[in-house]
Amino acid sequence: MAHLFPTIGWAVPAWAGTIVKFLIDNIQPVTRFANPFLSAAQPCLRTLDRGFKLGNEADAARLRRCPWSGISVALTIIAYRFDGRRLALLAGLTCLYLVFFNQWPSAMKTLAIVAISCRSASCSAH
User: Fold this and answer.
1) Do 72 and 96 meet the contact criterion of CB atoms below 8 Å apart?
2) Each residue's pLDDT tens digit in the chain (126 positions)?
């Protein structure tokens, strides 16, 4: 039985490399196509986190930042539209988990870093 492990150890990298090559060849054009649309929506989505002020005066109209509950509901609705009840339940429970265990701020920071990294990587790949 011990002689099987070296065979499996060598077969897995080749198999993983084949899958990664397949994903790069087939998924990369889709992500390249979607990138401009996602980039165009980025300033609008930024207002959900930071808020928006219309004017410079003290009494200027202000759109406050969206709280965790609003973002959670939006993600749950989007998940429901994509794949139904099970994905919506997963999205909603994940958001609640992040909030109740006080991980929401760090999760949003991590998400922002990943989004910026993905954006930078797609720009440098051109």
Assistant:
1) yes
2) 445 555 555 555 667 778 888 888 888 888 788 777 777 766 666 665 566 666 677 766 766 667 888 888 988 999 999 999 999 999 999 999 999 998 988 887 787 777 777 666 655 555
How far, in Å, CA of 104 to CA of 107, rounded? Answer: 5
Tell me the C-alpha distance between 30 and 104, whole Å.
30
The answer to whether 53 and 62 are in contact (CB under 8 A) is yes
- The vertex-80 CA angle with 77 and 82, nearest 5°, equals 110
Amino acid of residue 123: C
- Domain locations in the chain as residue ranges: 66-126
The total number of residues shown for the chain amounts to 126
In this structure, the strands spanning 61-63 and 52-54 are antiparallel
Query: pTM above 0.85?
Result: no
